[in-house]
Amino acid sequence: MKNISKPLILIALLSGFLNSCSKMEELQDDPNRTTDATPELILTQLEIQAFNNIGTSAALASRHLVNTDGVNSNQYYNWQRSDFGNYDLLKQVRQMVLEAEEDELSVYTPLARFFNSFFIVGLTQTFGDVPYSEAIRAAEENFTPVYDRQEDIYLIVLDDLKTASDELAKNDETILGDVIYNGDHLKWRKLINSFYLRVLLSLSAKTGNPGLDIAGRFREIADAPSAYPLLASNEDNGALPFHDIEGNRYPLFQNNGLQTAFYMEKTFVDKLKALQDPRLFSFAEITPAAADQGLTANDFEAYNGLKGSVPLDENVQIAVNGNASRINKRYYDQAGNEPSLLMSYSELQFILAEAASRGWIDGDADAYYREGIRASMEFYNIAESAINTYLENPGTQPDPGNEIASILTQKHIAMFMNTGWQIFYEQRRTGYPEFDVSGGGVLNNGKIPKRWMYPSKEETQNGKNLEAAITRQYPEGDNINAEMWLLKEE
Amino acid sequence: MMKHSLIILLLSITPRLFAQHEVSGKVTDTDGIPLGGVNISVAGSMQGTVTDFDGLFTLETGSSQDSLVFSYIGFKALTVPIAGKSQLNVVLKEDTEELKEVVVTALGIKKETKALGYAVQEVQGDALEKAKEPNFISALSGKVAGLNIKNSTDLFQNPEISLRGAKPLLVIDGIPDRTADLWKVNADDIENISVLKGATASALYGSVGLNGAIMITTKKGKEGKLTVTFNNSTMFQPSFIKVPDVQTTYGNGDNGIYAYENGSGGNTEGGGWIWGPKLDQPDPSTPSGFAETPQYNSPVNPETGELTPLPWISRGKDNISNFFRTGLVQSNNLSVDWGNDKASYRMSLSNVYQKGIVPNTGLNNTSFSIGGSLTPSEKFRVTSGLTYNKQYTDNFPQVGYGPTNYLYNLVLWTGVDVDVRDLRNYWKEGQEGYQQRHFNTSWYNNPYFQAYEYLRGYDKDNLFGNLAFEYKATPELTVKGRSGVNVYSLGRTYKEPKSYLGYNDKSRGNFSLENTNYFDITTDIGIRYEKDFSDNFSVSGEVAYSNFYRKETYQYSSTDGLNIPGFYNLDNNAGSTLTGTNREEEEAIHSFYGFVDLEFYNAFYITFTGRNDKVSTLSKGNNSFFYPSISSSVVLSSLLDMPEWITFAKLRGSWSRVSDGKIGNIAGLNENDPYNYIQAYDKGTSWNNTKGERFPSVRYSNLLIYHALKPKTVDTWEIGTNIRLFRNRLGIDIAYYQTRDYNNLENIPLSDASGFGTYLLNGNIYKRKGVEFTVNATPVQSDNFRWDAQINLSQYRRYLEEIYGNKEYTEDRLQVGDRTDKLNNASVYQTDGQGNIVFENGFPVSDPYGRFVGYSEPDWTYGISNTLTYKNLSLTFQLDGRLGGLMYSTTNQKMWWGGISPGTVNQYRDDANNGESTYIGEGVQVVSGQVTYDTNGNIVSDTREYAPNDVPVNYISFMKTTSNAHNENYHYYSQTFIKLRELTLTYNVPDKFISKMPLDAVSVSFVGRNLWMASKVPNVDPDPGKDDLQAPSTRSIGFNLNLKF
Known about the structure:
The structure holds two protein chains of two kinds.
Chain A lengths: L1 H18 L19 H13 L5 H5 L3 E3 L18 H17 L5 H20 L22 H21 L14 H18 L11 H9 L15 E3 L15 H5 L1 E3 L1 H9 L4 H5 L4 H5 L19 H9 L9 H4 L6 E4 L1 H13 L7 H15 L4 H9 L10 H12 L7 H9 L25 H6 L1 H11 L17
Antiparallel strand pairs in A: 1-3, 2-4
Helix pairs in contact in A: 2-4, 2-5, 4-5, 5-6, 5-7, 6-7, 7-8, 7-15, 15-16, 15-18, 16-17, 16-18, 18-19
Chain B lengths: L4 H7 L9 E9 L9 E4 L5 E3 L5 E6 L5 E5 L6 E4 L5 E6 L9 E3 L5 E3 L7 E5 L1 H4 L17 E4 L9 E4 L5 E4 L2 E2 L13 E7 L2 H4 L10 E6 L5 E19 L49 E2 L16 E2 L7 H5 L3 E13 L3 E13 L6 E16 L2 E14 L12 H7 L34 H7 L1 E18 L4 E26 L2 E30 L2 E22 L20 E22 L3 E12 L8 E12 H4 L6 E15 L20 E3 L3 E2 L5 E2 L2 E3 L2 E3 L6 E14 L4 E13 L2 E5 L8 E5 L2 E17 L3 E18 L19 E2 L14 E3 L2 E2 L9 E2 L4 E11 L2 E11 L2 E3 L1 H9 L8 H7 L10 E5 L2 E3 L5 E4 L2 E4 L6 H8 L9 E3 L2 E12 L2 H4 L6 E15 L17 E12 L1
Parallel strand pairs in B: 1-7, 13-16, 36-40, 44-50
Antiparallel strand pairs in B: 1-4, 2-3, 2-5, 5-6, 8-9, 10-15, 11-12, 13-14, 15-16, 17-20, 17-57, 18-19, 20-21, 21-22, 22-23, 23-24, 24-25, 25-26, 26-27, 27-28, 28-29, 29-30, 30-31, 31-37, 32-35, 33-34, 37-38, 38-41, 39-40, 41-42, 42-47, 43-46, 44-45, 47-48, 48-55, 49-54, 50-53, 51-52, 55-56, 56-57
Keywords (chain A): Lipoprotein
Protein name (chain A): SusD/RagB family nutrient-binding outer membrane lipoprotein
Pfam families (chain A): SusD-like_2
């Protein structure tokens, strides 16, 4: 017996280990992630994503900047594909709505309409037809959403934006998690209404389309400022501020490339010089050669640019000889720099100016134009006196024969390093300002592309729907030079 | 009859003493057939010999009254007194008990080799003892067919291990090590390593054994006298077998111009290119006689305040050898063991010190291990072992391409106008602690600054051990149990000085801390039954219950900038808040398993196994699952009359199913996270509003998770044979296997428009196939000389058998039937269909569709090792490598891109420096027409007409844009290589020299590793199987001293 009992003790001991952790169900809750969220937690994320659009690609494609590290496809216009990243954000919008419904909150619904519109417009402007009515339906096991016609998408967007504005006007629930407007309903309505006008203006080729009734819709908003308030000052800007806090810094802060291989584009610099536009001092550094000559930052002669369209080596040669202006240091050495703009008061003024000039509304195009310039210059903290001088300059006066060209030229200046790809789309829509392709270095047979190819993932994962969309839109195939519905005059 | 050649080798080392009596004779079996390789020793002494192929022997003994002991595996040992005779003819009888050559199989169960229905290959610990690698796994390279080890050239980086194409389980003394720490077992403590190659072999481990197992058995106390062993191994790394070869003709700069202003982009010096002016150009007008220009180290002219021009010469030609130092791996082990029939005990103390080739880097690895057994009665036995291991370093290099990589700063992006010796003084004068001194402070770190100021500490305490018992309740029934724990705590620190550069990040100083605490326990309790019903039929089997539990916690904290430079403490945070995160993980598996072994006529063996796992890592309802296996072996040589030269022949076959209920190794998920089956929100960015209030956020995962995931399953069948010829002088083992991997838990891509980028579900189906050959041979065996050789050869392939949802292509553009290593989606340039590259404006045109460039898996992986023994000298050398298979080389791509590749030294470059565009890429340009593609990238219509490309472009612009990709197979290079992995020359000091000392045995070895290599890929060692800018590959040379007291 003695010999048996001791081994038994060991068995008992080991069995003790077995029992120590037998409740498996208790191990099946994730302590690291939440499965439940409140809508405001998602709203914060959506705002950060939607309002933060700082980058260099659009600046290269819009003849604001030039890169000397290689033949950049944005600068030389031989880009190919873009991505469907916005659908992830559309899903976040949907989650926000679901969580809000669970909490019986309705104020997030109009915000959701706005974000949905913002993200889908971003997609359709890039590609043409894209999935929308069947998009974000994976939970219902629809993994291959059909592509909606661009026209249908815009119809939904226009209705949604108006509904959002109306709904928000009637809602007095608190908006939480709002890093843009701190829950200010009025400012949100101003942004939504102003964005609605931007979308309408982007359809300027479609004034003859009776179903859209672009001008009528535009007037409905612009002529009813109490029902549909608009952005009224830079204070109302749809802007995301940056902070000197980990993760919240200006996206190009300490960017290696920006301080060594990005230069101002020559046609842009020359224009600012010709206009004696003091915003140049805020955008650019003086050239090393000018510095060697002792020229100062407020001397227009101290600035020079590189032509985006000439062969790379010609630009490199000018740059290494110290004859090109870099972008202003603040873009890479200030953590806060300037806020990122989803849409600014200045842009709204240019929109109204163009609408007036097109005869959609009755206002004074010239006054809107001047107010747009003033707002932009105030954004860059240009002194009042300098602004007034600038507004009096002959070069600043709108071209009476081609007001729209003047408006777009000023819009192009005002959108330097902000508002994402907006200025590229404006140029695509109007042809103004002209983007230089004369230098002999431009690829894509010297043409500016009109769109991007669909993501290759759509080819493998949603091939049939993609193919149908391509066939009905672009007889030449999925091509960057093809013209989408939005750009076709009717 | 059968015997491991290595054991024979060890025993055949014959000390020669002054002879007083010579005896010779012949050894045969009962049929009168001569036995070669029989060990003969003089009882009570170290003297001995082995019989030759004809069974003949001659031996000189100290006295004619000695006795001789004849031993031979498979035969009963026989002691024969010489009794004055000079001729002895001895007949050895076969020993059916002794015939059982055993190997360690799953769960530590020892089985006869001949009974195995699957492939197992053993490596004895002494093969790892002399030619030391910093970790024991690297020392297994080329030694096991089917085990592919890709060794890193960087300090303290895990080699990549794959067994039959998948990562195997590591098992230490029967306890699975899920922490897979390859550094915690010291090679000196390893008795042997048994590689269980397929899922069948390791099926009893359950899901963790899905991909086979590497089983480590540590040394235990041996019965016999008290032995003290000291083993020292010292290896230097004085030189490189592969290092990037760079051009020394041109310096830093761009378009042939270099102008230094402030180092951070004020002029060309900041851009970081090595497309500068020619070096070493005579200029009689300057003081030095060479062209001069201001540089980062120019003295400031006190009168003008300007930088004084310095000669533009190739001062930095030897930057590599000037910066890297001689590495060192020094390993010491002291062990004591003793045992008798009741108890045994071993303790061992080891230390491995590694001095890195990068200054101020190193690694210490210390282990203390105890283990033993108690056998109080014949029925009861307890064994236990416990090891404490500490891995610690104050600094080891960061790897991967980027400004945190030493080679990046030293070679890849530094023209030889910079002499690294001048950078030893690494603070900018007057800005000590704030700004590093370097020729370029916008992109690159001063390598000395990096080595001495950017410190990555690592401190891991491992404790692991096990306790096991066996109690033989009746002759047939044994109760057994085993419990093992793995515990570790790991603390890591990151000290980042001010002005340290990352991509788009100039540090304001930072201090980060990471702490992990880990615990797991595996406990098995079971009953074993065994009975020999007759000589021709026996049964054994086991049923057991097993329980696994793991808990892991992790914490991370970091400053957001530092106030006081060089003061690394969270309290020195300059930011408004500390950043931090933490995790906690718990998981469990409850299992029942069992097996039955049947044996008939000593020739047929069948094993059935079964296991049921219930896991916490899948949702309820899908988390309990059963899987079986069957394996069988037939010993033909016992059944049939074989020719005499066939010593042994067997056929084996097996089938198994193993399922795994843990989701791991999926992009976007943490590999060991037990909660991966749960759909949830991820933490998002927090942001301040304009009032300074901080808002947290969440975002919904971009990965959709199927709600009823099933465990993934691998079905494997395998056949093989083991044949030994000429009395074991030649042994051949061949294995062929096929697996079908289904219900794979993987991310299936979705149209992003569906709302999710990927869908985690039981997805595609794959098939793996492979073949492995092992040949053991003893081509020469005589009294004084013996040559043993082993050849390992294997091939492995994986195919796509089914695409989830029956889609035409996967995201990598693979189709059903394709090898999964097919590189079918590489970014390439357009061609005209005849293989000519299409150019526009002198630049190649990108193809919007990914294309085929080759296959990444090697065709064959091989290893050849030889041991030549002459008297007391033995020489071991091993050659191994891979044949075929492509790897992408970041180093080569960047060298072409940046201008440091020797291939860029040509007339076009001189022309470009002179502002002339003369380079015309070889290819065509489109003169008319266009091409359209279908959505799969196939050409639908093509009306293009071509003319040869005749547009000259600036060579520098061309290289900066293309990296010469189209001329370098898009930087996919063949991995083919052969390496002299190991060379060991050992001298066993004869007894006559050590008999007067208090020593039992002494051996001294000269050791070399990685001595020579031939390969196809330029500039990098293909051994790691990938290249993300690896450290130069070093050669190791040193010695080993082994003393036994």
